[in-house]
Amino acid sequence: MERKSDIRSKLFFYAMIPALGSNNTWRAYGFKKRPRYGSFVAKMFPRKYELQEFINQELFILGFVDVLVGIQYSHVSNEDKALLVASLFDSFLYYSPKSRNMGFIDAVFVTFLDHKNPAEKRFSTSMLKRSKSMSKINQSKYIYGTQVLMYDDAKNYFFIDSEKIIDLIRSNPVPKIFDFYDVDPIEENRSFRLLLQEMEID
What's the whole-model pTM score? Predict the structure, then answer.
């Protein structure tokens, strides 16, 4: 049996779009183009790659929040929405186990809460708090770059228009049974349960 449903694969791809990012995205943060390096190199020289690693992490989080907003306002039942949300986290945590250590679900949850507050959509408060883990110079570069990317106050999303996600779900059937990798830790996670409540699909 194929592990990922078609709809899950597509949602997962959309969530990754900001992190895959165009060169223009990275130019906002002071890079000539999207940097390419291996995880081994990043571990060997953590200070040198601190900013790149942080930007990648945050772009993943923002991509997930945008997809979650699309799922929330899609036409499918609450049961299907919950399945899609769980399967999305399941896929990401399977392909990126280190995300469990960085509290990925927790970070997505608090950023989703920021998104619900119109005053926070331009620059998430939780993003600002997480950036304090970096050096002052890298934090300044991150804040400036993110403000440049999110200058449009009229947008109701970070990077991905929720209407695209809604259209995607409308045109792709949601299977009643997913072949999860390891969904138990996700369902037991407090932030995941609170996220479903905030999305009004629990």
Answer: 0.85
